[in-house]
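Kindly draft a polypeptide, keeping tokens residue-aligned:

***
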Amino acid sequence: MIAEAERNVSIHFGFRRDEKAADRDLRKVSTPGSKTYRVFPSRKQIRKRYGASRKDINAVRAEVSSAGLDLKMDPTGIFGAISGPADVMSSWLGVEFQGEFLLDGTTLQIGWPSEPPASIRKFVRKGEWVPLDVLADFTELSGAEIPVSKQSEGPKSFAGRNLGTPKGCLKNAPITVPGTKLGFAETSYAYNQLNTAYGIDELPRKKRVGRQTKLAIIAWGSGYSEENLEFSRECFKLPKMSFTRSSVPGLLGALPDGDEGDLDVQVAQSVLPVGSSVDIIEQAPFTADPRTFLAYAAAYRGELPNAVSLSYAICELILGETSPYLATGFQMADSVANRLALAGVSVFAASGDYGSSGCTNFTGDKQKAVGLPSSLSSFIAVGGSRIVLNKDNSRKKEYAWNDEGLQPPIGPQPTAGGGGKSVLVAKPWWQRKAGISGKTRSVPDISAHASLGPGWPLWTGDSGLPTIVSGTSAATPLLAASVATIGGNEIAQGRPTLGLLSPLLYDLGSSSSQIHDIRKGNNDPYDQGCCSAGKGYDRATGLGSLNVGVFGNSLPSPAITTKRANG
């Protein structure tokens, strides 16, 4: 398929900038006890201090304008987009326009030379030239078939039954497993149960908090159904709140409904107080659009959210195989997440669902690997656990998530919480301070229930009936929505939001009342020797699970009590 020469096309690139200063100042505003703890700069200050210089922007704008092209800067000051007709772009780049190619019948990609022109090369940050434009209706993300592990020393066998007291419609839902008497009330947790177990129901729920509670959800390839969202709300008698969709450049229309998108919004809805606002930022899957930074840049524009949630994890080891520009996309996404954190936004990412073998669902390779973007230092990495409840829904026990031990007929399943050591990202300052071993970033940071035994209730598809699911894709929006609520209460009290939580979490440690230490189980369904839960930090569950109510009600005070500077 050959493109018309007049088609408008764009190239994104990162400007040279002072990332060291941004990292240094993020450390200051994120470290409890510092003179600027939670004293977040405005976005105007962030752009001026850590973005491209006005001189560099003007120089690039003059160069591209002389060629008949436009330069549009992102509000972060990190990157810009050069755009114009395809034939004009070709002439400026000094190459013949080569047209377009299709991916999976749904996505057009337009490619350009892999190096910027000499006239602007010195202004482009190394490795941040993305000569690729994308027009996507939608392309499915599919992985390799996952074989069942033959692990000889797996987790202890468990039935995975709900021993607590669920509320809502689950008791009247149809049988979960055909040919058995197992229903939803036995095989999944109701939201009231997990909210009690993790202390979420101790958070303020009034409308004045909800009005200040804003969450952004990044959706890569899977949208959500408003009808299914309403089914879940009615079942569990949840409060009303607003959900809006937005999309990044290159995505044509809304993403189709999918279980991943439905799970994100339904879990968020189960946590957030009445009157909250949720923005779902949609983008084609990374297989079609490697410009992953665009979704985070969208969260940075407009009214800032209190937290951002992403329920996807991409194996670090397949970056080059997937797209030559995916590594660039994540490098720039980490910079944008850094600016979000500097502005007071907490950015969460799921660690994945295949244990310490994070490439399994992509390539079938079982070697040790962790997932991006959770391994990046500006992100809070969420792992998986399996929680067991008392009759009153209080927390009885909690294990590292590994469903290999889940008994039939629902199990076993070769799924577990992502965790291990990064091969790409250096150990961040807060892990060095806490004495975490190794030279590179360890994930996860914190965990929450992700098991199928019991699982999470989900309405998806068009049957109008629930199903049960598992994954850090549920644990991540649970924690992100909890922190967004805490942030909303802080704003309502005249204080700033939380920003990057990791330094605070590691300061508190696993022995604090705010964090439940998880000491049993492993996330090693493929016998790779990593990782087991134990006392203190481990790469199976991180620091443990968050006691949300206690955490939210005992935050260290900001250095200056002031509301967020939103400008």
